[in-house]
């Protein structure tokens, strides 16, 4: 499918113009701070007419962290539409339905315009879904339209804030919003839940007071473990020696990091899983002959909320078995299940309803849910990891061509892109798969242990901070030695 038709539509879509001259690092920091100021203003502004007491489910909190959103606020939808539109267009491109040459400026511009159109459309649709399916319940039927309008407007604003951050800030809006949201969740969770829970345990007295107080910080402890393991993984790399053909004695190294595609596979995989829990909620209203199939795919049931009412939640079906729908291991006073003892007992003894259209309900042990969730997350991470390498020009073929164009070669081999590609093929595909499996397992483990800020959120934040550090390092180097930027290009 050609994208020439986008040219006629794109001129009606607002666009953020890039700066006329390159910005200094200081200017980028100012713009980043201003954009984050607007983001947190929206983040802490609840939409008028929302029933705030019914949006405190654990799964909704996880959706908030991964999508850099706050359920019930103006930016309830968050970055979900941006990520989902990217996934859809990449799948279409990978299947050959969209013919795109990202090296062609015109085609790249059309692709970006199409992605923005898709993100805005999905933002509007998801705003309607969030309200009509009850994830963001309006205080009264008369306010439904007003709530939808606010969520849609907030989602569209996020799309343009992301574009502004990409062109004027120090990194992409998606990265910065996720990192900011997770950092906020960790600080808020520590001070509003973990510390009060520890104080409560000590105040109760007895021989178990100190152990219970220490256990209260379990989610923070697991968060720190994930943080440290992630940093260690980012430092792991394979370095291939390089030599410069035109200048003898000048050499370098090509680093191939263990996390070659960083945390992008987890972003895409978790976004897809969590989007399914929102989109499939429409199946709850299916009646007639397809009702059994709908329950088999996703079973929704009313569950009591902290506000005294009920809310429709995903409690069974195939969608539940692959979703990160696990209770929080906090004490019951803070919306959790009652501590780690109760939490692990729940995982070992609880059962999940799975409706079989041909045989009625069967009960699936919760540990099967744990295994399937981790397995599907890892598989999705591998798929998106390999796909992302091809889509972003990081494949062995692309890297070998780039090295050849810059005059680099691997010592001991002829300067032939095909030879270099063969050498890179021994490393990049394997490292991509292993790195994707690692981030998938680490994110699943951290989610299952109830790490504050969520396992996926912490993993994403570490990756984003690491990439940001590298980018700032490069920007500082390029400002000092402008000639290096020309060489790099």
Question: What is this structure's SSE topology?
Answer:
Layout: H1 6-10, H2 25-43, H3 58-66, H4 80-94, H5 105-132, H6 144-168, H7 173-204, H8 209-216, H9 218-235, E1 237-244, E2 251-257, H10 264-279, H11 291-297, E3 299-304, E4 310-316, H12 318-321, H13 340-349, E5 351-356, E6 360-365, H14 366-391, H15 396-406, E7 408-409, H16 417-424, H17 428-448, H18 455-480, H19 482-488
Helix pairs in contact: 2-6, 4-5, 4-10, 5-6, 7-8, 7-18, 9-17, 9-18, 10-14, 14-17, 15-16, 17-18, 18-19
Question: What does this entry look like structurally?
Answer:
By secondary structure, the chain is mainly α. Helix content is 60%, strand content 9%. Helix 17 (428-448) packs across helix 18 (455-480). The protein starts with 5 loop residues before the first helix and ends with a helix. The model has no long low-confidence stretch (mean pLDDT 79).
Tag the structure with descriptive keywords.
489 residues; mainly alpha; Preprotein translocase SecY subunit; 2 domains; 3-stranded antiparallel β-sheet; two-stranded antiparallel sheet; 7 strands
Briefly, what is this?
This protein has 489 residues and is mostly helical. The model has no long low-confidence stretch (mean pLDDT 79).
Widest β-sheet, arrangement of strands: 2-1-7
Binned strand content: 5-15%
Reported for the largest beta sheet, the result is:
3 strands, antiparallel
Unreliable runs, pLDDT <50, ≥5 residues? none
Task: Provide the residue-averaged pLDDT.
Answer: 79
Number of strands: 7
> What overall form do the CA principal axes indicate?
globular
Question: SSE string, helix = H, strand = E?
Answer: HHHHHHHHHEEHHEEHHEEHHEHHHH
Structural class: mainly alpha
Number of helices: 19
Count of folded domains: 2
Radius of gyration over all CA atoms, rounded: 24 Å
Distance between the termini: 30 Å
Level of helix content? 55-70%
């Amino acid at each position: 499918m050609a994208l020439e038709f986008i040219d006629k539509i794109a001129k009606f879509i607002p666009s953020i113009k890039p700066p006329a001259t390159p910005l200094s690092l200081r200017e980028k920091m100012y713009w980043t701070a201003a954009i984050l100021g607007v983001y947190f203003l929206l983040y802490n502004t609840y939409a008028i007419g929302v029933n705030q007491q019914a949006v405190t489910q654990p799964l909704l909190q996880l959706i908030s962290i991964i999508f850099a959103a706050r359920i019930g606020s103006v930016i309830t939808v968050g970055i979900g539409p941006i990520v989902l539109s990217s996934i859809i267009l990449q799948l279409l491109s990978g299947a050959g339905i969209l013919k795109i040459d990202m090296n062609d400026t015109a085609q790249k511009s059309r692709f970006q315009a199409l992605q923005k159109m898709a993100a805005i459309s999905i933002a509007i649709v998801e705003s309607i879904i969030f309200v009509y399916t009850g994830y963001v319940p309006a205080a009264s039927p008369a306010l439904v339209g007003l709530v939808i309008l606010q969520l849609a407007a907030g989602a569209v604003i996020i799309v343009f804030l992301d574009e502004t951050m990409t062109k004027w800030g120090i990194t992409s809006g998606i990265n910065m919003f996720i990192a900011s949201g997770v950092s906020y969740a960790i600080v808020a969770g520590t001070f509003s839940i973990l510390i009060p829970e520890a104080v409560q345990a000590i105040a109760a007295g007895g021989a178990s007071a100190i152990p219970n107080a220490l256990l209260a910080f379990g989610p923070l402890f697991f968060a720190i473990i994930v943080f440290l393991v992630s940093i260690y993984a980012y430092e792991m790399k394979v370095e291939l020696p390089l030599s410069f053909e035109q200048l003898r004695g000048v050499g370098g190294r090509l680093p191939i990091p263990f996390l070659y595609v960083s945390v992008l596979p987890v972003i895409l995989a978790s976004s897809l899983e969590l989007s399914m829990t929102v989109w499939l909620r429409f199946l709850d209203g299916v009646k007639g002959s397809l009702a059994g199939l709908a329950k088999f795919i996703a079973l929704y049931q009313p569950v009591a909320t902290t506000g005294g009412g009920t809310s429709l939640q995903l409690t069974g079906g195939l969608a539940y078995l692959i979703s990160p729908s696990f209770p929080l291991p906090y004490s019951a006073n803070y919306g959790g299940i009652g501590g780690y003892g109760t939490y692990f007992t729940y995982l070992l003894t609880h059962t999940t309803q799975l409706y079989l259209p041909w045989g009625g309900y069967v009960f699936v042990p919760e540990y099967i849910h744990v295994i399937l969730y981790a397995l599907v997350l890892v598989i999705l991470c591998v798929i998106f990891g390999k796909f992302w390498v091809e889509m972003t020009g990081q494949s062995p073929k692309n890297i070998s061509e780039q090295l050849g164009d810059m005059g680099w070669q691997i010592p001991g081999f002829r300067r032939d892109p095909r030879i270099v590609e063969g050498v890179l093929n021994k490393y990049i595909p394997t490292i991509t798969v292993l790195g994707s499996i690692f981030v998938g397992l680490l994110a699943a483990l951290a989610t299952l242990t109830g790490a504050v800020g969520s396992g996926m959120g912490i993993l994403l934040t570490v990756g984003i901070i690491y990439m940001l550090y590298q980018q700032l390092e490069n920007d500082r180097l390029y400002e000092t030695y402008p000639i290096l930027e020309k060489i790099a290009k």
